[in-house]
Each structure stands twice: as C-alpha cells, then as structure tokens.
Amino acid sequence: MVLLRLLTFTLLSSYFHPGTEVDAQRQFTIRSIMLTIEPGTNVTRDTNVTVRCKATVSSSSQEALSCEYTIYKDSSTVYTKRSSTAEDLLYPLPNAKVSNSGKYKCKITIEGKEMTSEATKLTVTGMSKPVLQLNRNAVSEGEEVTAWCEAPGETGSIFFYLYEDSKVIQEHSNSNPMEAKIRFRNVGLHKVHCAYAVLVMPNTFNSVESNTITVSVKELSIRPVLEIFPQDKVYEGDQLSITCNIRNALYSPENTPIDLYLSLGTKLLSSGKNKVNHTMVALAKDPGDFECRLEKGHVEKVITKMVSVTELFSSPTLTMNPADVFKGEVMSLTCKSESYASERINKEELTYTLEPSVSPLISTKPGEFSVKALTFDFNYTCEAQAKGIKKRSETLTVRPKVPVSIPKISVVGRAILGKPVKIRCHSDFGSFPINYTLLTGDDILSTSTVRLPTQEAVFTVTINKPEEIRKYMCKAQNNPKNGLPSSRLNATLIEPLRGLTLTVLPDLTEISEGNQLYLICGTKGTPPVTYKFYRVGDKRPLLTNTLNENNTHYHVDKLSKEHSGTYYCEADNHANNVVRSEKVIVEVHMALWKKAVIGGVCLLVVSVLVAVCVLYIKSKRGRETYSPPATQAPCV
Q1: Distance CA 505, CA 559 (A)
Q2: Among 137, 164, 257, 475, which is least packed by CB within 10 angstroms?
Q3: Residue 488 DSSP code
Q4: Among residues 188, 197, 206, 194, which one has the least CA distance to residue 133?
Q5: pTM score > 0.90 for this model?
C-alpha cells in the first residue's frame, strides 16, 4: 500500500510540475532563477561589480545535481560554468568600465531542462581622459609626425578621433592605443588633440578631450618663380614667353627631387625639374591664370599670375535678312565683328568667309553674302580673320518656310438655312503661322491666324438665302507677297420644312364604305424627309416613311365605318424642325348598293302596305252594298 501511494505521488508530481524530471532514482524541479548585480545597477568607473545568479531547485534525492550556468550580456554569451553545488554563481567584473554596461541575464540547464532569469540592466558611468603623445613638435614642411592616442584602462569597441585645430583629420577603431601619421600642409603653429568613443549598442559614450600639443611647422626656403613677358598691354596675336623656375634651390636636400608644372587654367603647358620655359600666342579666349607649381615630396608651393589679353577683334555674328525666307528665295547673310582694336589693325584687314561655301554664292562687299534658300534646313557659320587670329561665329540655322498650299473650304457639320453655319478653311501644307480670310464675293468677313498644327480656321456665318452659300470662299496666306484663294463653297444647304399639308382623296363627301382612301402629305424643304401619319386616339403612327421626295401618301384599300376619324401628318428633315399638318375629319358613308337595297325594301314594304289597304277598303265597301232577303214569319 505504501509503495502504491509513492508511485501515485510520483506520477501526479510529474504531471502537475513540467519542470520535474522523474527517473527510477530521483525527481527534481527548477523552481526559480534570479540575477542580481552588486553593489548596484548604477555604478561609477573602476567599481568592482559582481553579477550573481541564484537558482532554486527542488530534488527528491540528496545527491548533487550537475548544473550549467550561462551569463548573457545583450544576447551575447559572456560566461559559462558547470557546477554541482547549491551555491550561487558569481560572475565578477573587476574595475568595471563603460563597456561593461548592458542588460544581463542568467540561464540554468539541468539534464536538458532549463530556465532563464529576467534581464537586469547595468550602467557604468565615467570614462578615462585620453592621453596624446607626439614623436616631435617641431618639423619642416612635408615632414611626418607620429601621434599616439590612448584611452587608459578602457575596453570594448573604441573609436579614436584625431583633431587638428578642432577639425577631425583622422579616425581609427579597435586599437588602444591608436597610432597615426600626420603631415601638415601649412606652415605655422598647429594644435593637435584627440578623443575617443565607446560603442555599447545601441548607445555611444564619448570621452572628454585629451591634452593639446602644439606643433610648429617651419617653411622650406625654396619657392617657385613665375615670369611672363610681356605682361602689360598684351593683344591677341602677341607672342608670350613664360618661365617657371626655383628660388633657393641650393638649400634643398639633394636626395629629394623637385618637380615643376606650368599650367594655364586646367591645361598643363609644360613640366620639368629645375626650370620650365614655354612660348605661345596670346588669345583673349584662354581662361584662367598661369600657374607655376613646385612639388617636393609632400610639399607643394604654387604661384599664379594673370595676363589680361585685349581682343584684336570681337567674335563675328552671322545674321540673315529677311528673318523669314521661303524655299528658293534669295536671302542676305551678313558676317560682322562689332569691335576691333584700331590701334593694331585697320577695318580693311578683317576678312570674312562663309562656311559651307554654297553655290551660287555672291559676295557684294566684305562680310555680306547673297545666297538662295535651300529646300531644307541648313546650318551656316562664318569666320573672321586678321593677323593670324581666326574667330568663328555661332551657328545660324536657316529654316526655309514652305509656301502655303491652295486652301480647301468646307462646312463643319450641316448647313441649315437661317441658322449659324461653321465654315472651315484648311491648307494641306505650309509653314506656320497661316492667315485664313473668309470672303463672300469681294467682301472680307473675317480673318483667323493658325499657329499650330492642332489649330484650324473655323468661321461662323448665317445663310438666309439658298443662293448665298455658293458665294463663300477663303484665302490662305503665310507670305506677305501673295495669298491663295480657295474654290467657292460647294455644300448642301438644308432648308427647314414648311407648309405641310394633308390632302384627302377622294373628296370627303364622296368617301363611302368599300372605296379606297389616300391621305397625301406634302411639304416644302430639303429632303430626305421623314413622314408620320397619325389618327387621333392612336399612340403609334399609322405609317412612318423616309423619302427623298417632298410628298408621300397613306393608302387604305377598302374603307369601313371603323376608318372614320380625325387624321393628321408630321414631317421633319436634317434641319431637325418637326412640322404638323392641319387635322382632317374623315367620315365613311354607307355604300350605294346598301342604300339601293334599303330603298327597294322600303318601296316593297310600302307597295305591300298599299295593296293590303286597297284590298281592305274594297272588301269593306262590298259588305255595305249587299243586303240579304228578309225572312217571313209563319202564320198561326
């Protein structure tokens, strides 16, 4: 019974405690785990810090359990230890630094079962002051200085910054101390200091600035010399002689080569070791200053001079006259320099040429050329020349205009008598702008200017008489010299319907049963015409018909009394005006044979009645004239 109870307790314990391990010898459960930081979570630099991990485990056996402890800092493993004692795990952080700041967690693992504590944040404040050292504090131009910057006692991800006169000149990482090589470009005194930053994701902690060291940079005695002759009153075409050499070259160490570079703007003219000579023709268009550059190792020295060059003559301009020219027309091209140095050249010394030299080409006087416009776009330039100096004009593109073609005149939509009509005038080709003029006879009605292919000339007029439509025409013009007329307007003028009548055949007095009936609807106006016949009381028309005629009819082949009624017709055409006729009352009379039968029957009846009456009268009279003999009584 005791054994049964023990087995039941073991099974229930395993069911209700998932952290419990059950085997034939022992059972255990991890009840809790907690991480603490001593002496506290906020400490100053160089404090001895201890991370304590305390786990509570319940076991059915006195035998020690084998536990594995893992310490995490910001999700990274920093310490692991296996222990078989019940003592707390201690992770020491002696002389804590800023790099030790972060979130710490502890995990315990026993025979495949594990539990992790909540995270606890440690913050360490305070950073050591960086120390800067230089191997020398007095150098000459181009010499190298070695600098060391140290963050005493700091660990972790460290970034160093080296400053010259408050400007960062170098950056280094993950090396404590940091070593760097410095060269100073300018002579004089330079103040150097350093600083560092410790990266503790996601934060960065910055140190104070280090000590400052002043470095004296002495200028080398060698200098570049730039000489230009002539330097004043220089005109285009003058010969310039430029020399770039060295002053105090004897004081330079022999083992250090010296290079010289002579430049004009960004163009390198010449280079050499001790002296550079260069000659050139002065041009006003040359940009920038002359520069003599000396390079000795890492030392650079530069001297510049500017030479003001006066234009011998200005760049020519090429113009055309007239501004608009049509294909095949003669035009004048003028090439001219607006200014020239009269103290150096005469106006007659300037010569002009046209490029390309098209044929035929006529030059009436210097700089003026007469040419015929081509049938396509063409580019011209001209060149002015004097004393070996040549200057070209900007390109002039001549775009010959295309004469306008004979315009076409047409109606937009439909032309309806008495209503506004739109008339379009259009040419198939011709250069814009094109002026279109609408005329009636010799009278100008209106003018429209078309400047784009998407535009068109449309005029609105009102035509009151049919014969007026043939009088309209238009004229197109894109050249002041001439304008082309169109043909006269040839379009159908729609006359609105009028005078609609409804005629009845036969005559209304002669309409009788069995006869045929014709309702004739006629009107005046432009066909096609749509006719509709109606009888009052019917919603739908009796007949709808569209014809190219001014009349139509509705036919009833055999009349009956049911055809009696009131009739009318409607008509419309492309003028969209509906006209209606007067109403006509049609009464269908009885047929003649029916009348004759009725008359004959009536006569027969009358005859029979008369005969009966006569016979009756005669019979009555006969009884009155006849008396039978008297009867005698017998004797008694």
Answers
A1: 12
A2: 257
A3: P
A4: 194
A5: no
Residue 194 near residue 163, CB atoms below 8 Å: yes
* C-alpha pair distances (Å), 297 with each of 74, 144, 253, 294, 376: 50, 11, 11, 10, 62
Q: Are 353 and 393 in contact (CB under 8 A)?
A: no
Contact status, residue 350 vs residue 386, Cβ threshold 8 Å = yes
- φ, ψ of residue 56 in degrees (nearest 5): -110, 120
Q: Phi-psi category of 540—alpha, beta or left, where left has phi over 0 and alpha has psi -120 to 50? A: beta
DSSP H/E element including 540: none
Residue 536 tokens read as 């009052």
Structure tokens at 40: 């506290």
B/e letters for 483-501, b = 16+ CB within 10 Å, e = fewer, are bbebeebebebbbbbeebe
In whole angstroms, give the CA distance from residue 583 to residue 544. Answer: 17
| pLDDT averaged per 10 residues in sequence order, the chain, 636 residues | 33 38 64 92 92 87 83 91 86 91 92 90 91 91 89 89 90 86 88 92 88 90 90 89 83 67 91 90 82 87 90 92 85 91 88 80 82 86 91 91 91 91 93 92 90 92 90 91 87 90 85 86 93 91 92 89 91 91 86 63 77 77 55 37
* Other C-beta atoms lying within 10 Å of the C-beta of residue 474: 30
The continuous run of DSSP H or E covering 8 comes out as helix 2-16
What's the rounded Cα separation, in Å, for the pair 189 and 178? 23
- Whether 27 and 10 have beta carbons less than 8 Å apart is answered as yes
Residues 6+ apart with CB under 8 A from 70: 77, 79, 80, 106, 107, 109
CA 171/CA 160 separation, integer angstroms = 6
- Between the CA atoms of 375, 379, 384 and 385, what dihedral angle is there, to the nearest 10 degrees? -100
